[in-house]
């Protein structure tokens, strides 16, 4: 297999392998802040299928549902009871994108400061690209029109909704 063919295949493979993990960390950002700022039960849902494997850690339950298609490997969401405290809601909504940005920043620092093999450069660069993209797709205030998020709004959109209530 030639090097150019490997380059063509490596980023989709990195995407398929890293996105479920990046989504889990993003959703854990929301969940941990919700656990700290509330006394509520918090649930994380990863995947869109019906595998329904769950893990419970005190007030946190993580549901691993599997994926109906490769298009859905970036799906995750967190449920907590609605908050009437705007500042707490803003912090909980901002925590997921912040984690995505911190992961991207960490991989950028590694890429910039360490001499890595060609393969690790590709892997780390892929993780950097996908985590930074995740940050951008969740921090910009939009209503999603693509699968599997049709009908949902971004974290940035939710933050702006809470800021409008504040002012």
Strand order of the largest sheet: 2-3-1-4
- Major sheet description: 4 strands, mixed
- Rg result: 17 Å
Number of helices: 4
Give the strand content.
5-15%
Number of strands: 4
Envelope shape: globular
> Structural class, judged by helices and strands?
alpha+beta
Question: SSE order in H/E notation?
Answer: HEEEEHHH
Mean pLDDT: 92
**End-to-end CA span:** 59 Å
What low-confidence regions span 5 or more consecutive residues with pLDDT below 50? none
Fraction of helical residues: 55-70%
Topology summary:
Layout: H1 3-37, E1 42-47, E2 53-57, E3 60-66, E4 76-79, H2 86-113, H3 118-139, H4 155-166
Parallel strand pairs: 1-3
Antiparallel strand pairs: 1-4, 2-3
Helix pairs in contact: 1-2, 1-3, 2-3, 2-4
Describe the structure.
- This protein has a domain at 5-38 and 85-163.
- It is globular, with a radius of gyration of 17 Å.
- The chain is of the alpha+beta class.
- A four-stranded mixed β-sheet has the order 2-3-1-4, with helices on one face.
- Strand 2 (53-57) and strand 3 form a beta hairpin.
- It has helices spanning 3-37, 86-113, 118-139, 155-166; strands at residues 42-47, 53-57, 60-66, 76-79.
- The mean pLDDT is 92.
- The protein contains four helices and four strands.
- Helix 1 packs antiparallel against helix 2 (86-113), helix 1 crosses helix 3 and helix 2 packs across helix 4.
């Amino acid at each position: 297999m030639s090097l150019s063919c490997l380059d063509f295949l490596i980023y989709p493979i990195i995407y398929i392998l890293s996105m479920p993990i990046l989504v889990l960390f993003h959703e854990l950002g929301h969940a941990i802040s919700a656990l700290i700022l509330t006394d509520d039960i918090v649930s994380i849902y990863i995947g869109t299928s019906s595998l329904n494997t769950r893990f419970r850690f005190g007030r946190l339950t993580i549901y691993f549902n599997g994926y109906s298609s490769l298009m859905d490997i970036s799906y995750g969401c967190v449920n907590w009871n609605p908050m009437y405290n705007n500042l707490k809601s803003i912090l909980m909504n901002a925590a997921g994108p912040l984690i995505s940005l911190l992961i991207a920043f960490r991989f950028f620092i590694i890429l910039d400061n360490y001499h890595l093999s060609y393969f690790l450069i590709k892997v780390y660069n892929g993780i950097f690209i996908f985590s930074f993209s995740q940050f951008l797709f969740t921090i910009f205030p939009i209503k999603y029109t693509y699968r599997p998020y049709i009908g949902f709004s971004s974290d940035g959109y939710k933050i702006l909704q809470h800021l409008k209530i504040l002012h």
